Amino acid sequence: MDWPQIAVAVGTWALVICTGWLVKRQLSIAKEQAQIQLYLELRKEFDGYLIEQRKILARKFLEHASIDEINEPVLNFFEDMGMLLRRGLLDHDMIWDLQLLR
Asked: Rounded to whole angstroms, how far apart are CA atoms 25 and 4?
């Protein structure tokens, strides 16, 4: 094997490695964008229709209502958020900064 062939082989491997790195980076960026989009949707839901549901839930807690009287939309919201966090579909720090969990 002569030097031009070696140079082509090394160049090809360098291109393969660079392409692999770029693909991995692109996938990482896509995952981060999906997490941000999901975060924004959760934020919109929490600040949207759940406001009234949160008020109802707070009143039920203050009245010491039984578990059967508690409305579920707010509880389901947090269950869903927990499931998304466990599966790595949400960024923990992003949700923590949402100030819902503080």
From this structure: 31
